[in-house]
Amino acid sequence: MKVNINGETKTILAVWYEDNEVKLIDQRKIPESIEIFTAKNSEDIYNAIKSMVVRGAPAIGVTAAYGLAMANKNKEDMEKAMKIISSSRPTAYDLFKAIGYMKDNTFSESAAKRYAMEITERSRKIGEYGNELINNGDKILTHCNAGALAVVDWGTALAPMRIAHDEGKKIFVFVDETRPRLQGAKLTAWELQQEGIDYSIIADNAAGYFMKKKDINIAIVGADRIASNGDFANKIGTYEKAVLAKVNNIPFYVAAPGSTFDFSLKSGDGIPIEERDESEVLIVNDKNLGPKEGHARNPAFDVTPNEYVTAFITEYGIFKPEELKKLYKIIQGDLFMR
Questions:
Q1: Which one is catalytic: 224, 231, 262, 302?
Q2: What fold characterizes domain 128-337?
Q3: What is the 3-state secondary structure (H, E, C) of the chain?
Q4: Is 224 a catalytic residue?
Q5: For 64-117, how does the pLDDT look when each residue is reduced to its tens digit (9 = 90+)?
Q6: For the chain, which residues make up each domain, given as ranges?
Q7: pTM over 0.90
């Protein structure tokens, strides 16, 4: 992805492997600064994922793959390494897909790099297919961050917007702030700014207002896990945006690679939902938003039923929820995805 550092535009990846260490852009520091987090063992990988140094399902998967290659090279107990890394975040299916892939490929460094390369290339293809859905002049809503930071490069939901912009289409993006961690306001807005794409940050509860005014005509989001019937988990607040889109006759698309589809689940009822510490809701910039004795609930994700999804944008093409059996057969024939 393009990054402006001290007035100079550079290209940098969200996560990479170097000298038997895993390097990650510390997403907790953006947009204030660009800092690199270095992981040297499986405990560091666990902490990077758990504390959200890295987030976004595909990026978590790549981080796990690199982490297992590193652990293997360091002669760690691999069963223990897999167990601790897999416990870092329960909802993102790419995490478990990457762990399985690395186990099947003897935890080699070359396998980890191949996994990262595949995920990145598949994200670019998602962008190409998604670009076909974007018209010149479109005003797009997105939620949370599903850009290069959430993958390695390109992104999922943002990839179609990047390609549309590069082709000269005039687009405008409404960026949900995405409480409580503000991944939209901090990360998505920052990525769009680096790419020169016009945007406005909006409060999470303002999306319906702009939809009703017809200021938004298409919505594209990412996903952390997609069940076989098309129910999907994404950042908390996605469900209500999908319902609002349907009520206002706005197409609602989910952009995700094959690695995010969990065909072992019949529906979204089986998706585990991570609930994070209440402090993320109650405290902002070290200040309490409410009474000091107050409590909060903090689910990190919600599940959107398939009836609210217009289609899924994948590296294999665009599929409606009722076409996912066809997608399953395609994925089964993809050696990388087995």
A1: 224
A2: Rossmann fold (3.40.50)
A3: CEEEECCEEEECCCEEEECCEEEEECCCCCCCCCCEEEECCHHHHHHHHHCCCCCCHHHHHHHHHHHHHHHHHCCCCHHHHHHHHHCCCCCCHHHHHHHHHHHHCCCCHHHHHHHHHHHHHHHHHHHHHHHCCCCCCCEEEECCCCCHHHCCCCCCCHHHHHHHHHCCCCCEEEEECCCCCCHHHHHHHHHHHHHCCEEEEECHHHHHHHHHCCCCCEEEECCCEEECCCCEEEECCHHHHHHHHHHCCCCEEEECCHHHEECCCCCHHHCCCCECCCHHHHEECCEECCCCCCCCCCECEEEECHHHCCEEEECCEEECHHHHHHHHHHHHCCHHHC
A4: yes
A5: 999 999 999 999 999 999 999 999 999 999 999 999 999 999 999 999 999 999
A6: 2-120, 128-337
A7: yes
